[in-house]
Amino acid sequence: MLEKIREGSQGPAAKIILGVVILSFALAGIGGYLGQTTEQPVAEVNGTKISQTEFARAYQNERARLEQQFGEYFTQISADPAYMARIREGVVDRLIQQELQNQLALELGLRVSDEQVKNAILEMSYFQLGGQFSNDRYLQLIRQMNFQPDTFREYLREEMTRNQLVTAVAGSDFMLPSELKSAVALQQQTRDLDYLVLNKEKLADKVEVSEQEIKDYYQLNQSQFQSPERVAVQYLELKASDIAPGKEISEQDVLAYYEESKNQYTAPEKRRVSHILVEGSVDDAEVQQRAQAILDELKSGADFAQLAQEKSDDIVSAELGGDLDWIEREMMDPEFEAAAFSLENVGDITDVVASEFGLHVIKLTDIQRQQVKPFEDVKEELRAELERAEKIDAFYQKQTEVAELAFEVADSLQDAAIAAGVELKTTDLLARNMLPEPLNTLAVSSAIFTPELLEDRVNSEVLEVGSEHIVVVRVKDYTAAAAKPLEEVSAQIKTRLINEKASSLIKEHTQTLFAQLQDGKLLEEIASGEELEVQSDEALTRQSYSVSPAIVSKAFQLPHPLEGQPQFAMVELNNGDAALLKLNAVKTPEVGNDIDAQQKQSITMTQINRNYNALVDALEAQAEVKRPKINVAEEN
User: Fold this and answer.
1) pLDDT in tens, 563-613
2) Domain of 475?
3) What single-letter DSSP state applies at residue 87?
4) Is the pTM of this model over 0.85?
5) Cys-Cys crosslink for 558: which of 19, 110, 567, 609, Cβ 3.0 to 4.6 Å?
6) What are the distances in angstroms from CA 627 to CA 40, 272, 631?
7) What is its subcellular localisation (predicted)?
8) Whole-angstrom Cα distance, residue 191 to residue 541?
9) Helix, strand or coil for residue 82?
10) 3-class DSSP state for residue 51?
């Protein structure tokens, strides 16, 4: 089939069609084909659109961060549509804030040069192997993040520009000593508290939920009971590391490779030298006179190390008797290096040598001659390199065959798998976020859920998931996202309604008890009537984890109680329970001038973050921000 296509593409009809296509590009403009899209943006900030592609990339990064944070528990968390909806909303909000910062940075004239972006990429540890930048690793990682080199550079430029903005704002922020003391005192403040927690479960038995209420709730909230779209995938996976070498590597092959690459296993000559430096211009007669006097003393038998300590202007090496440790070629000033490597025997000294730093007298203290690693020491390493090269050659040959067969026989992967020498693998029906490796990379999962693969059930193109690592996929089965049947979620809805009603009842009951507390009834009396016990904390801190966060937050919002007049409050807890609070006392410590440096930095950074967030909020309040009501990159 491919041969027929090639032959057909050379015929006169094909050339006429090609001419028409080229003419249409010339008339309409290539930008019209590549730049326009019917895709609706996830948001628009002062006329600048945030695309679905930007959202998808940021959302995948956030998912990866959460998966790393929660581990195996993330699967359970991500099953909650409401939780994942909040995650998506948070990603959109963050993209909006980033665009607002980009626009402010542009308005302020902040810029990041191409050279700065290049240096940042070279210094990133993610792109390094053995401490050196690896271009192959760089390309592999950015492709996994769905970037091309040019788009990644622009993405990084935006990040660095925003960092300039943050640095500018943070660098201009400060705290007065009195403000710092007040902040430390507030941080260390404690509060004496009595509280009573009323559990909603106590009233759950009194709650009744009808079948009609369950149906009504289901009808109004079907979006909360969606089963995600699921797909069953057949795929082949080909990795160079799994391929047998195309030929057996003989001892002669390894030896020949050793001879070809011997320079890689040659340790260059090293020399250990000491020097005495006289700083100044080489044209200065006094400087020349001082250097010559030192040389004369050495020739007369003076000790080099002692003379270096007394007369060298290189303070660091002078303390070590002039020692500069081991040097190799192209490490030192050219004149210095030439003189040092011209010395023949350990103990020899040079005449006066001029360099850009001044005048030197150099002594050779040790030599390590150039050495070549023996063949036996590197034989296995070389064999592994040759085997890897053979595997890579075989990999790319197989990849070409796989690509052709997957295209020619578009409705089956069997022929391509035979050519690759691998077994086909098939998944069960799985949601997108449950796909196994290597299908869970952004490039592969995006390809799987394209209409072409879902509807036509054809083979995908060759998809790169790593260095010398590819997959080809085809969809075996697919079920669209749909609302779960009422029967399946009825029990879940009933439990939710019971909890909501119980929470409402406990809230009303607690409000009644709170009114009694304000009228003078003791908290202990209320507790006795409810068959509960009052709980106390005589030194509650803002960072306390032994008490519900809602109680801690409310306790530190209450005003200071007057003598014999405690402050009362009612709190609704996050789990639907409620609590009554009695604040008895507030204890604020005296803070001296010797504030811990780490604490000072923490408080200052908190204020900087607060002020910067206030700046971003102000930008958003003044901006024209549109959030279209659309489904953005649904993953569940």
Assistant:
1) 878 999 999 998 899 999 999 999 988 887 777 778 777 787 888 888 888
2) 230-244+382-483
3) H
4) no
5) 567
6) 11, 68, 11
7) Cell inner membrane
8) 7
9) helix
10) coil
